[in-house]
Structures
1.
Amino acid sequence: MNSDLIVFLVLSLVAIATALGMVFSRNAVYSALYLVLNLVTVAVFYLLLGAPFIAMSQITVYAGAIMVLFLFVIMLLGAESLVPSKALPWQKPLAIALALVLVVEAVYLIISRAQPGLAITAPDASVNTMENLRAMAMELFNAYLLPFEITSILLLVAMVGAIVLTKQEKVGKGS
Amino acid sequence: MNSVPVDYYVLLSAVLFAIGAMGVLIRRNPLIIFMSIELMLNAANLVFVAYASVFKSFSGQIFVFFVIAVAAAEVAVGLALIVQIFKAKKNINIDELNSLKG
C-alpha cells in the first residue's frame, strides 16, 4: 500500500460522500455547499495529477464564481426547499436503480478493459515551475488559438444573453 | 513504486458521473439539477486530466480549461432563465412547468 494510493482512496471517499450529500440533502443551500466541497476535492485530484493551473482555475471559476452565483440565485428565489410534489412517485426508486445499473455496467467495462501498465506517479516539483506553465500557454495559444477565441465569443454571447434575459421589461407590460 | 493506476481514476469518475445522472433524475428543484450537471462535467474533466497526466500531454488539460469556460457560460444563461421562469410562474418546481404539455 503506497502513500499515493492512500491519499487517492481517502480523497475519493470524500468526493463520493459529498456528491451523494449534494443529491440527497433537503436544503438547496446545503447541496450547493456540498458541491463546493466536491469541487475542491477534485481540484486536489488535479494537483495530484500534476495540473496545478487547472486546479487553480477549478477553485477560482467553479468553487468561487459559479457556486457564488448558485447560492445567490437560491437565496434570491427562496428556493431552499420546495414542497415535494406527488407527481410520478415511481420515478425516484426507478432512477436510483438505473443509476446503480449504470455504475455496475461502467465498472464491469472499465475492469474488463483495464490497462494495468498505465499508472500515474506523483508529479515532481517541476510541474510547479514557471517553465511548465509557459509550455502549457505556448500550446494553448499556438495549437488551440481558434478554440480559445471561439470560447471568448461564447462567453460574450452568454453575458449579453444573461443581461437580456434578466432585464426589466418597460414596454408592452400592459399593467 | 509510488503510483495509482489510471483505471482507479476512471472508476471514480464513472461513480461521480452516475451520481450526477441520478441527481438529474430524482430531484425536482431545477437549481439542484443544474448542480448535478456540473458534477457530471466535473467527472468528465477528471478523466481528461488523468489521461493527460499519463501521456504527459497538455491537450487534455487545455480541453478541461475550455470545458470550465463553457460551463461558466452555461450556468450564467441557465440561472438567468430560471430567474425569468420564477418571475413568470412564481414557482420553479419542474413538475408544475408543463405549459407545453399537449
2.
Amino acid sequence: MGMEGIGARVARKEDKRFITGAGRYTDDMVVPGMKHAAFVRSPHAHADITGIDVAAARRMPGVIGVLTGRELKTDGIGNLICGWMIHSKDGTPMKMGAWSPLAVDRVRYVGDAVAIVVADTKAQARDAAEAVEVSYAERPAVTQALDALKPGAPQLHPEAEGNLIFDWEIGDSKAADAAIAKAAHVTKVHIVNNRLVPNAMEPRAALGVYDKAEDHYTCWTTSQNPHVARLVMSAFYNVAPENKLRVIAPDVGGGFGSKIYIYPEEIVCLWASKKTGVPVKWVADRTESFLTDAHGRDHVSEVQMAFDADNRMIGLKVDTVANLGAYMSLFSSCVPTYLYATLLSGQYAIPAIHCNVRTVYTNTAPVDAYRGAGRPEATYLLERTVETAARELGVSPADLRRKNFVTQFPYQTPVIMNYDAGDYAASLDAAMKAADYAGFPARKAAAKAKGKLRGIGMSCYIEACGIAPSAAVGSLGAGVGLWESAEVRVNAVGTIEVLTGSHSHGQGHETTFAQLVAGRLGVPIDSVSIIHGDTDKVQMGMGTYGSRSGAVGMSAIAKALDKVEAKARKIAAHLMEADEADVVVENGALKVAGTDKSVPWFQVALAAYTAHNLPAGMEPGLKETSFYDPSNFTFPAGCYICEVEIDPDTGLTHILQFVAADDFGNIINPMIVEGQVHGGIAQGVGQALLEGAIYNEDGQLLTASYMDYTMPRADDLPSFVVSTSNTPCPGNPLGIKGCGEAGAIGSPPAVMNAITDAIGDNGLTMPATPQKVWAAIRSAAKH
Amino acid sequence: MYATNYHRPKSLAEAAELARSADAKYLSGGMTLIPAMKTRLAAPSDVIDLTHIAELKGVTVSGRSVTIGAATTHFDVANNAELKRVCPAICHLAAHIGDPHVRHRGTIGGSISNNDPAADYPSAMLALDAIIVTDRREIAAQDFFTGLFETALEDGEIVKAVRFDAPEKAGYAKFPNPASRYAMTGVFVARGGDGVKVAVTGAGDNGVFRATDIEAALARGFDPAALQGVTIPADGMMSDLHASSEYRANLVVVMAKRAVAAALA
C-alpha cells in the first residue's frame, strides 16, 4: 500500500493519450501499399442468392479485387463457429447452422456480408461495392423468437428444425413444480428483456496483411482477446496456422462484449490480402456497426415464484426463449444458459429452482454477450419478480428480500453456483441509508402535491465474474480454458514490463496493473509498463470480458511477481550475505529485516543481468511467467436504489437519485471502480429507459442510427451516489471480485421497479419511453 | 459520400448562377444535407454554400419589426440582445435546437427551406405570421410551408431573410424525440394585435400546422387553464416508433399549455 499502490486513486496513465487524440487505433494503422475494403451486404433479411455479377464492379476506378463467398469456399476458409457446446435436455448437441464469412447461397439478416471489394481508396471501394449486382430471391423473414418457434415459421437453417438451436434445462423441475403446488402464494410474471446494440465508440475494424516472403499474416483488429482470435482463426477458419498468424489489438475504443467475437470481416480481410497481394483495411461505418455488431439480450420469459405462508421463497420456475439471431456467434450459446440460469438464485436461498431455455434462430443480427451477458437477464427477471411479489403480498420489498437473503457461506445454490462469500444485508442497509429510503413517503407526497408521480425501486443483484475454473467450464461445454497468463520482465536497470493476456479497451489496466507492481515492489508507477494486445509480444492470453481481468489477469501477475520476488530475494540475500528468509522487499529496496542492510531494487536487477555475482547455480535474468487458473467464479453483489419522478402529462421519467452499494471485494483503484460503476449504470439506465433494437416484420432494423436508437446522454442521468463494501474474495490471491459489469446488471430492475412503483404495474416493458409510460398511466386510469 | 463540387459564392447572383448546374444543392449549415450525403442518400453534383454571402447574415430589429438574415446561425439568433428584448421566445427556440455544434452551423434559412416536419423554426414562422423574403419575391409563412420537406420555393430560389412583427407575448415549448432530440412535438404560441396564433411542429403528418382549436380556446383566455379539457384529434398526427398519433395529439395540448405559460412568465 502506498501513494501509487493498491487502493490509491491514481490518475489513469493511459488517459493523456486518449484525451489528446494520441491513441493508436486499428484505423490509425498505415502499412506500405495498404488498400481499402468495402463489403457488399444483404439489404434483405432473408433471401436466396441467385447470382452475383462482379464484372461491372471490377471495371470501376481504383478497384483491385472483388471477391465472393464461392472463392472463399474454394480456398478452404472455414465457417464461423460457436465455441461453447450446449446439449439439449434430450442429449442431442446444439444445432449449429453454417455461417460462411461471405454468404454463398443464402443471406439471413440485413447486413449479412456477400462480397468484398478492395480498391485504392475507401470511396472507390464503396462505389464499386454498389456496382456489384447480387440477384436475390426473397424469402419470408421472422424476427421475433416466439414467432420463429411457431409451426409454419420461415426456416433459417436446415440443421435446426423449427429454428430451435437447443432446448436446455437446469435445476430440478419436479422439485420446483412441487414447491409451486404447495405454495401459499405464487407470483407469475411475464418478462421481456429488450434487445440492445452495443455501440462501442470505436467501430469495428480490421487490417489484414499477408507477407508472401514469410507466408505470414498480420491482423490488426478491434479485439478484446487477440490470442483467442488467433486461435480460432487458425484452428477453425483455416486462415493460417498460429505460428504464421500475428494478431494485434492496439488501442480499442470500447468493447462491452461486442469485440470478443471473431467476425467475418477480419477473416475476409486476411484472406483478401493474400488473394489481392495488398494489405487490406476495413473500418465499419456506424450503420454497419448497428447492423452487424453482435447485439445483446433479447429474452422472453415466463416466471413463477412460490412462497410459503411465512413469505419465504420455496421455489422458482422459469421458461425462457432467447433470440440468437441469424447465426450462432462465438459464445452465444453460453450466455442464455451458464451465464444466465446459474444466477437465478440471486441473493436468495431458494431450495428448488428450474429453468428451461430454448434458443432460436431469427432473421436478425447475431446475439451474444453484451456487458453483463446473461447476468443482467437473470437479475432483471428475478428482481422484477421479487418486487412484484412484495406488492402482491403487501409487504415491504426490502423486508421480503432481507428475509430470503443467503446468510451462510459457502452457499450451494440448486443451479451449480457455490457462493463463496458475501454480506447482502450490509449492501441493502448501506443503499437504504444513502437513499434516505425512510424519507421516501414524504417526498412522494410532496411530488404528488405538484402533480408528479414519484416512485422508488430497488434491485439486489449478484453476479459471477472471472468465469472459471478451466476444468469446470470445459465440463460444461466451453471450447477454451479460462485462465490468464502474465510475464513480469524486470529490465537490467530495474524498470519493469508486465506482459498480460488481458486486454484493455477502456478499463484502465495500464494503471491498475502497474499499481499492483508498484505497490508490491515499492517502485515508482512510471517505471512499470503494461504490454498487452499483441500475440507476438505477449506469451498467451484469454483476453478481457466477464469482469475477469482483475480477478484472473491480475492474479496471474501477482503469481509471476511472487516468483520474481523470490528470485530477487535470493540474489539480495547473496549480495548482502544474509539469510534469504530475513530479506524483505520494502520501498524499492531489498532489506535485511531488523538491520540497516539494504540493496536498492535496481541493483538487484542489474546483478541478475550482469551475472557477475549470483548464487551458485542460479540462471541469470529476472523474468518470470505465470499461468493462473482460478478455483471458482467470484461473486460481486450489491444493492441499487433508484428514485424517479414521472410527469403524468408526457410520461417522461426523470431519475432523481440513483444509489449503488456494491461489494467488489478488494479494490485496486477506487476512482476507476467508480468510473466502471458509473458507466455500467448509464448503460443499465439506457436499457431501462432509452435503448432498444427494433426490427420491422420484414427484418429491417428500424433503429439503425442515432436518430432512432436512443443512447443515454449526460442529461438523462443524475449524479450517482456510489459506495462499496469490501468482503474479500477468498478465491484469488488479491481478494478481487470484479466491477466491470455490475452497474449494467443491477440497474435496469431498480429503474423499472421505481417506475412501476410510481404508476402501477401495467405490463410496462423496457425501454420505458415517455410514450409507453404515458400509455401505461392512461390504461391504469381507465381500469 | 459521393464526390461533389463545393462552391462558396460571395453574392446572391453568383449563387443563383452556380445553381443552374444539373444537380446543384444550396447548403446553408448542412445540418440535414451533409448527413444525407454522408450516408449516400443525397448526391448533389454541386454544393453551393450560402453562408458566406454577407447580405444573408445578421438580425435587425427596428421598433417591433424583426428581420433575420437567412444565413444567421441559431446561436446568433439565440444570443441577439435586441431580439431577446422584443421576442425572447424565438431566442429560446433557437437556443434549444440540436446541440452547440448544430447551433453554430445551422441557419434559419436552411431550416425553413428544408422544412423538416420535426424542425423547430417552421412553427415560429407560422405563428408569427412571418414573411419569407427570397431573391425573387415575398411569401407569407402560411403559403411557404406546403408539406413534408416541401416549400413554395421554386428551383434555384434563395431565401434571403425572414421578417415579422414581434408579438406582445410568445412562447415555445417542445418535447424532444428521445433519440434525435428533434421536436417530437413543438408548439409556438403568439398573441398579437390580430389575436392568438398557435403553430405545431413535429406532430402533423403533413408537417407544420396551425392548431385552430387551441387558438380559439386561447382567444377566450390567454392562459394555460383555458386549455383544460381541450383535446385535439389523433387523425392527422404522425405515428412512428417513438410516438403514436394519440400520444402526439396529447403532447400538442400539453406543449401548448407550457408554451402559454412560458409566454406569460
